Amino acid sequence: MSTTTVLDTRALNRATLARQLLLDRADVPVLDAVAHLGGLQAQEPQEPFAGLWSRLRAFGPAALSDLLTGRQVVRTHLMRRTVHLVTADDALAWRGRHTAMLCQRVLGTYRRELAGVDLDELAAAGRAVMADGEPRSMTELARALGERWPDPGPRALGEMLIAALVPMAQIPPRGLWRTRAGVRNVMLSAWLGREVDPPDRDGTDPVGQALVRRYLAAFGPAASADLRAWCGLAGLPAAVTAVRGELIAFRDERGRELLDLPGAPRPDPGTPAPVRFLPAFDNAILGYHDRGRIIDDAHRGLSVAGERVVLVDGRVAATWTVGKDDTVTVTPLHSLSRTDRTAVADEGEALAAFLSDGDSDRFRITAAAR
Questions:
Q1: Cβ–Cβ < 8 Å for 38, 215
Q2: Looking at the predicted structure, is the pLDDT value of residue 369 above 80?
Q3: CB 14 within 8 A of CB 271
Q4: Cα-based torsion angle of the residue sequence 138, 144, 150, 152 in order, rounded to the nearest 10 degrees
Q5: What is the pLDDT of residue 202?
Q6: Distance of alpha carbon 252 from alpha carbon 254, whole angstroms
Q7: Tens digits of per-residue pLDDT, 275-299?
Q8: Residues 234-248: b if buried by 16+ CB within 10 A, e if exposed
Q9: Per-residue DSSP letters for 233-262?
């Protein structure tokens, strides 16, 4: 592999936009888009709708709701121990590979509370309770086991069971278009009618290798640290090594090695980038360790704080909110040109109409944040 070609920040930005379907809206089915993106971060239930609207041509929210009720996509704890909206096939294929990481992340918060708890016994007890197929909240499941494990408390027990030990699906109506509903969980295997794929036993890690390829298709070119930041899995160096012969390599301006799929799009850095509105916690930003290709270091905290952002010329240039009257309000992070303000207004009005089911196209832009 040649590592002589250096990709500057703008080249990486345009590659990311192309892979994330943000350079030109894609004309693909919603299920295919969710699969291509490796899922959408979805702890805020309505955010995937805005994320797909910004990526797909003629996206109708009913299409995503139908996939949820039809059990073709599912809400579940996965990458980075956050709730993701992923295809049913990916949920079943990937979940077993993430279990150890999910447990370690829960223990990172509740290690003291869970000291002395046999996690295998806790998992078996949790599965036994959930075996009746009744949807339960995290609190309800924890309380069902609280007599046997009184010391950790319901929060620690519930987090370990729901987010790590027992693969769960958050079932509709949560996550449906313009619907408010609490979290109700059922076992992923019961909801999808198939068992979660068992962990690999021979050390070849085919799931890890698939994750490398899928990540690069949606986020490349990228470094191994970026891959780890996206999925939260530390144990992928062997998978990267196994597929390295399929890949090409570049360097970024800092000298980091970036890997990529040979045929993946890497547009000319001069390609115009349209204004795009991104939802909270969008993986186009969070899916990298080095987020400099899309957001300035000074604004990096916005992405982890759950701010919705606006891309202008491919970079985070503003935040946006939507009020109770369905008005989309944009607050620039720096001054915008008249042309850019017009483009932001046009896209903002279209977003307001989408979010309100056509009842409003109200939009306003405030003074730049100081």
A1: yes
A2: no
A3: yes
A4: -20
A5: 82
A6: 5
A7: 999 999 999 999 999 999 999 999 9
A8: eebeebbebbeeebb
A9: -S--HHHHHHHGGG-EEEEETT--EEEE-T
